[in-house]
Design a protein that fits this description.
2 domains; single chain; elongated; about 80% helix; mainly alpha; binds zinc ion
């Protein structure tokens, strides 16, 4: 980073929290800068993310009083994203583990157990998590989750066709 870029970086750091209030030309400069600066890119991502999930009216970040709860919110959101992933992994792990425990040889019955367990436990968990994601996380995450769930359920359902 040369001296000129360093200066722009410093300005971006100051301006990204109030991105919404900047004029188009300034926003353009920031957008150009984030192409090669991962620190600002990350910061802008978080700003985008917060804006989507909370709504722009509440994000007039101008003073310390508002910034502190926002930082906390970023933290909580990260935790929630991790949580929705972990719950899915855990449900799939328990289903697989139980299937393997009761059927040591990979027979058709094991597959059936796995399939019914997936639809009995994973499907309701996924639906709950999707509703949760829709309400508390941003829509991009809802879409990712939906695709992952559909792929998992479709893959499980496809297995059936082989037998
Ligand atoms: Zn930067």
């Amino acid at each position: 980073m040369n001296e000129h870029e360093r200066k722009i970086h410093k300005l971006c750091q100051e301006l990204i929290p109030v991105f919404d209030e900047l004029d188009a030309e300034t926003q353009e400069i920031i957008n150009e800068h984030v192409q090669y600066c991962s620190i600002c890119d990350n910061m802008l991502d978080k700003w985008d993310f917060l804006n989507e999930s909370v709504g722009s009216t509440e994000i007039n970040v101008g003073n310390d009083f508002e910034i502190k709860p926002l930082k906390k919110l970023i933290h909580i959101n990260r935790g929630l994203r991790l949580l929705v992933i972990l719950v899915r992994v855990l449900v799939l792990f328990v289903i697989s583990f139980n299937t393997l425990r009761f059927h040591e040889s990979g027979d058709a019955l094991a597959l059936q157990t796995f399939q019914s367990a997936t639809f009995l436990f994973y499907l309701p968990a996924a639906i709950f998590l999707l509703v949760f994601t829709w309400m508390f996380l941003n829509k991009k995450w809802f879409l990712y989750s939906l695709v992952v769930d559909l792929v998992i359920l479709m893959a499980t359902w496809q297995f059936q066709l082989f037998y």
